[in-house]
Amino acid sequence: MIPVLSVNGLTKTYGTKKVVNNVTFSLYPGQIFGFVGPNGAGKSTTIRMITGLTPITSGSIKICGYSIERNFQQAISNVGAVVEIPQLYPYLSGLKNLKLFAGFYGKQALKRIPEIVKLVGMENRINDKLSTYSLGMKQRLGIAQALLNKPKLLILDEPTNGLDPNGIVEMRNILKVLAEKEKMAIIISSHNLAELEHTCDVIGLINNGKIIEYKTMKEISSIVESKQRIQLLCNYPNYAALLLKKKYKIASKVVGNSVILPLKEANIAVVISYLTYKKVKIYGLKKIQKSLEELYFELLNSERPSSSII
Ligand SMILES: Nc1ncnc2c1ncn2[C@@H]1O[C@H](COP(=O)(O)OP(=O)(O)O)[C@@H](O)[C@H]1O
Ligand SMILES: [Mg+2]
After folding, report:
1. Cα–Cα distance for residue pair 10/192, rounded to 1 Å
2. Which residues lie at CB < 5 A from ion ligand 2?
3. What percent of the chain has pLDDT over 70?
4. Shortest CA distance to 292 belongs to which of 209, 228, 229?
5. Least enclosed by CB within 10 Å: which of 45, 91, 98, 126?
6. Where in the chain is the domain with CATH 3.40.50.300?
7. Backbone angles phi, psi at 119, to 5 degrees
8. Residues of the chain with CATH 3.30.70.100
9. Torsion over CA: 138, 140, 144, 147 (sign)
């Protein structure tokens, strides 16, 4: 299967600064790719190159097999994007706005409007003037506009910026439908990893222009799980630590009157009964879990080769 998008060694230099540095990744039908990184990391610049809005310094971009540089028309005809604030007319209704843009693409796009309006869940408000829309509604109309040419690749640059939690959930549901039912490949960028947790299949973490992690969301969840620790409050923490090392080869840490150890939930009962059997009294148990946000900062702050980070 040829990828919907393949980005290879993509680099962008402004003056002497490489703002996008050797970025490589591919995207297949039905995949949702979360492009995550702090402000200034290079997300928008990468997206602008993919959509042909900014020239590439070096490297290549292919969309459905077509080079964005050499076969711009064929390449871009497969792309729908909400890159900047959608250019919409506030005094026209949502529907009139869509009709206006569909005009650029011809009859097929006009015919698709009712279907698209349904897809983005705007049937009830589509005849209202845009000036009465919330930010979330405007974003949805922006997505509707990007869907007019039936793209195989949908690109959204920080679409959840400024949306409330409800708006974020609605956006997530729309994107999931597009990926699952329409088999669209989707790039969604954000500076917040946790926000994309339930949306994306693959995460590319970018910092200082470089992709520093490229992982499936499943892999990221298992990293979070593997970093889980259990804190046991007990009467003889040093003795408990010694017992755990001897019996199970568990490296634990003594903090005050407690011992902190890496432990899977399935093994908690076994360890506690062993310690109790050895006359250690357990007073309490606490799970210490790293949040996705903590993991994100940890990854950003340790730009080592990906395999050694986790
Ligand atoms: N037209 C430009 N000229 C010079 N520098 C730019 C230009 N556009 C972006 N940059 C710089 O490139 C870096 C990456 O920016 P950007 O891609 O917008 O990051 P992000 O979208 O991840 O916040 C930033 O340091 C920004 O200042
Ligand atoms: Mg940006």
Report:
1. 23
2. 43-44
3. 96
4. 228
5. 91
6. 5-215
7. -55, -40
8. 228-288
9. positive
- If pLDDT is split at 50, 70 and 90, which confidence band does 85 have? low
Give CA–CA dist 46/24, Å, rounded: 11
Question: Shortest CA distance to 43 belongs to which of 156, 167, 149, 132?
Answer: 156
Q: Which atom of ligand 1 is nearest to the CA of 48?
A: 17
Place of tokens 């009964």: 273
The larger pLDDT score, comparing residue 263 to residue 81, is at 81
Alpha-helical segments (H) within the chain: 43-50, 72-76, 94-105, 107-119, 135-147, 165-182, 193-196, 217-226, 237-248, 268-277, 292-301, 306-309
Ligand 1 pocket, mutate which of 11, 16, 18, 19 (most atoms under 8 A from CB): 19
User: May I ask the CATH architecture of the domain 228-288?
Assistant: 2-Layer Sandwich (3.30)
Q: How far apart are CA 250 and CA 136, in angstroms?
A: 49
Q: Residue 158 C-alpha to ligand 2 middle, in angstroms?
A: 7
Residue 223 corresponds to which amino acid?
A: I
CA-nearest residue for atom 12, ligand 1, is 19
Arch. (CATH architecture) of 5-215: 3-Layer(aba) Sandwich (3.40)
- Position 282 confidence tier, pLDDT thresholds 50, 70, 90: very high
Task: Read off the pTM.
Answer: 0.85
Atom of ligand 1 at shortest distance to CA of 206? 22
